[in-house]
Design brief:
6-stranded parallel β-sheet, 240 residues, 17% strand, 2 domains, elongated, alpha/beta, Rossmann fold
């Protein structure tokens, strides 16, 4: 039996699947992985993305942070792709119990998924740092400079986890719970290089760990099944 057949057989037999995904899930929707730095960044920004998306940079250079954030992080026209839709179908069918994602684009929910644990927050939620008022991503996109609260005029911050910030503890605990109880864990589109997210794989206790990624990851040796292919190619073969 080849790896693809094995994968589809496991999906068919499992009713407690958890999916753990990273930037590679969304690149097929046209959302760039900001870690793949291209010449464009070097032309437009004086700092690497990791520096701009840090807590201290946000505090010290909020205008430059928001220039980058609007240009590169707010891909509000992006549509879910086949992977997002298949995951939503698996959840609806009672087979998938939860999605743990490092993405901040909200595309899993747009595709219909309900139980999504967003480790790094979401660009769709923005809050005033003074009074807590909510501000939509559209309003942030169309604002200028540092977005300000329509109620009190305070500065608005995206509900995304920046470098140097800690993850939401409840989200982390939920992710650990679902991963540790899963009978099948599918990991896709992540380099498994960013901690603490990458450490979540250690909580899986089963023997159906599937790793789908086009390039090698530090955890390839842990996989029970290793599929080196685009996520869309793999998920399009799932029949529910």
């Amino acid at each position: 039996m080849d790896t693809m057949e094995q994968f589809l057989k496991w999906v068919k037999e499992s009713d407690n699947i958890v999916f753990f995904g990273g930037a590679g899930v969304s690149t097929e929707s046209g959302i760039p992985d900001f870690r793949s730095v291209d010449g464009l960044y070097n032309q437009q920004y004086k700092y690497p993305p990791e520096t701009i998306l840090s807590h201290s940079f946000y505090r010290n250079n909020p205008e430059e942070f928001y220039r980058f954030y609007r240009n590169k992080m707010l891909c509000l026209d992006a549509k879910p792709n086949i992977t997002h839709y298949k995951l939503a179908e698996l959840e609806k069918a009672g087979k998938l119990k939860g999605i743990v994602t490092q993405n901040i684009d909200g595309l899993h929910q747009k595709a219909g998924s309900k139980n999504v644990m967003e480790l790094h927050g979401s660009v769709l939620r923005n809050y005033c740092e003074r009074c807590g008022e909510f501000m939509s991503a559209e309003d942030v996109l169309h604002s200028e400079g540092i977005p300000t609260c329509p109620v009190c005029g305070g500065p608005v911050k995206p509900d995304v986890v920046l470098y140097e910030e800690g993850l939401n503890q409840k989200t982390l605990q939920d992710a650990v719970f679902y991963i540790s109880h899963a009978d099948m864990l599918i990991i896709g589109g992540t380099s498994l290089a960013v901690y603490p997210a990458a450490g979540l794989i250690d909580y899986y206790r089963g023997n159906k760990l599937v790793l789908i990624n086009k390039s090698a990851t530090p955890k390839d040796g842990r996989a029970d099944l290793l599929i080196k292919d685009a996520l869309g190619n793999v998920f399009s073969k799932i029949e529910i």
